[in-house]
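We close this part of the discussion by returning to an individual protein. In the encoding step, the backbone of a single protein was reduced to a row of integers, each denoting a local shape. The sequence in question and its structure tokens are set out directly beneath this paragraph.
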Amino acid sequence: MKKFKFALLMIVAVVFILPSCKKGADDPFITFRSRDGRLMRAWKLTNITGTYQGDAVTYDGSNLSIAGTVTYKNATVQMTFDKEAAFSYTETKTINMSSAQATTESNKGNWAWASASKSRDNIVIPVADFFGKSNNSGIYYVDELKASTLILKYDDETATSITNLTFTFAKQ
């Protein structure tokens, strides 16, 4: 009988403790890594969808289109987060013009969670600009953070424009 009560107590504890490990709506239900542990790695941008200042933006892992026109081709973005809060970012792209040469931009800085609370749902990445289609403040909502997938969202509405972008990254 004592073993049964102990087992029942353990099941109840697990039911209440495990969901508290899940921070984002699309995070894994059960994970043995914290959000920091899942974030610390190299990431490659695989997709962008949404609008930037009212124009539709799409990125398929190679081509960035704005309002249906390919703006950049052979474009890649790679970023790395480490335990010391360091962040590095490299973007390579070729403007969609004949005989255009590829350009590469790199930047380094520090990342941080936007609040000291345990929610860890907004991240500050001040040096990332994702083809110039994000924000100057560098605050992104972490919609999903799995061991192999990171989805960041940015929403901004001003009197003159609306920007709603979703950036999907895959583990490198």
Remarks:
- Residues 12-22 have pLDDT under 50 and may be disordered.
- The CA atoms of residues 50 and 74 lie 20 Å apart.
- The chain has one domain: 34-171.
- The longest helix spans residues 2-21.
